[in-house]
């Protein structure tokens, strides 16, 4: 990348301009999705700013239970949740919201309703804040087909019905990765402009990767195919080099690296968590949607992840996602195990 030339670029593709360009390809479009996305982007900017100040605020005593104005200080994940709920409701384009932080779905009041359902994890990996590890927001968007009173059925749909998904990673830079079902694009926040600029156009995951990402602390509880795959990564039978283990423990950061460099990200079912640990609606589905649109695959150990039909808003599922050929290898191991049974 020519950074010197980049510094003098004046024709910047911002995320708003990018989405408006896409919108112009559909004459029937009313701009609702663009407005909704603008509100999500605003939420991401707010949370990014709060994350950046989190350590400092704690250091200089601004994060007590009650601050000097008598206002209650909120934990960052609770704050992030409030930010996104308010941003999404005020867009006037949503009818039902599902958040990782709330036990029940939020039905938007009739005067502020629109055609979209948004499922989101406002701050994924928030336990990593204190040690400065990258964390992020994950979201998925469904569209309600008919005008009717919103119900849980509007969000309890397979992931393949999503119209868009993405995540925003708060790390060394603030990166927003988005797919509307036609490819995947990455945007980086330029703090001097306060705008997300297109920096990773048309992301394609390598067909095969050199990295695997899994919590090996759970190895004693794994099923046969998972253990066999990880053994193959470490001790390849075909004479190829061993794969490198990279595990951050923050889903957004691990998936972001997998998307750019290839390989596999795994959170399998095990004896401790027979249904897996990651939540279907706002973790598994959005990341699987992005992975497939970048040319990769997402698999649960039994089926394509996006074909799952959740029965509750906080359902969990095992997940293997990443490079096409690597996931094919995992699928073959599960198929072989199935034949033995």
Automatic annotation (TrEMBL):
Recorded GO MF terms: fructose 1,6-bisphosphate 1-phosphatase activity; metal ion binding
PROSITE patterns reported in the protein's UniProt record: FBPASE
Primary subcellular site in the record, as a coarse category: cytoplasm
SUPFAM superfamilies (alphabetical): Carbohydrate phosphatase
One Pfam family of this chain: FBPase
Domain of life of the organism encoding this protein: Eukaryota
Official protein name in the record: Fructose-1,6-bisphosphatase, cytosolic
EC number(s) given by UniProt: 3.1.3.11
Subcellular location: Cytoplasm
Matches recorded under PANTHER family: FRUCTOSE-1,6-BISPHOSPHATASE, CYTOSOLIC, FRUCTOSE-1,6-BISPHOSPHATASE-RELATED
Organism (species): Gossypium darwinii (Darwin's cotton)
Reactions this protein catalyses: beta-D-fructose 1,6-bisphosphate + H2O = beta-D-fructose 6-phosphate + phosphate
Domain Fructose-1-6-bisphosphatase class I N-terminal intervals: 13-201
């Amino acid at each position: 990348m020519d950074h010197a030339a980049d510094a003098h670029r004046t024709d910047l593709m911002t995320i708003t301009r990018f989405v408006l360009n896409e919108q112009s390809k559909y004459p029937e479009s009313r701009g609702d999705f663009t407005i909704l996305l603008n509100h999500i982007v605003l939420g991401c900017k707010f949370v990014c700013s709060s994350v950046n100040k989190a350590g400092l605020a704690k250091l200089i005593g601004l994060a007590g239970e009650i601050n000097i104005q008598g206002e209650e200080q909120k934990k960052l994940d609770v704050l992030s949740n409030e930010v996104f709920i308010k941003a999404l409701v005020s867009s006037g384009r949503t009818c039902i919201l599902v958040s990782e932080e709330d036990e029940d779905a939020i039905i938007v009041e009739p005067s502020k309703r629109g055609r979209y359902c948004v499922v989101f994890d406002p701050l994924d990996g928030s336990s990593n804040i204190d040690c400065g590890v990258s964390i992020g927001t994950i979201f998925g968007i469904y569209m309600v087909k008919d005008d009717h009173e919103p119900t849980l059925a509007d969000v309890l749909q397979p992931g393949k019905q999503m119209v868009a998904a993405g995540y925003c990673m708060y790390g060394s830079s603030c990166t927003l990765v988005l797919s509307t079902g036609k490819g995947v694009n990455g945007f980086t926040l330029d703090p001097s402009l306060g705008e997300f600029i297109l920096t990773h156009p048309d992301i394609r995951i390598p067909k095969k990767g050199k990295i695997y990402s899994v919590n090996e602390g759970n190895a004693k509880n794994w099923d046969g195919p998972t253990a066999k795959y990880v053994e193959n990564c470490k001790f390849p039978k075909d004479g190829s080099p061993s794969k490198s283990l990279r595990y951050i423990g923050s889903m957004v950061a691990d998936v972001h690296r997998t998307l750019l460099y290839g390989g596999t990200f795994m959170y399998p079912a095990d004896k401790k968590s027979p249904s897996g640990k990651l939540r279907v609606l706002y973790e598994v589905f959005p990341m699987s949607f992005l992975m497939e649109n970048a040319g990769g695959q997402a698999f649960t150990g039994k089926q394509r992840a996006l074909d799952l039909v959740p029965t509750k808003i906080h359902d969990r599922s095992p997940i293997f996602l990443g490079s096409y050929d690597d996931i094919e290898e995992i699928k073959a191991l599960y198929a072989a195990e199935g034949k033995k049974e």
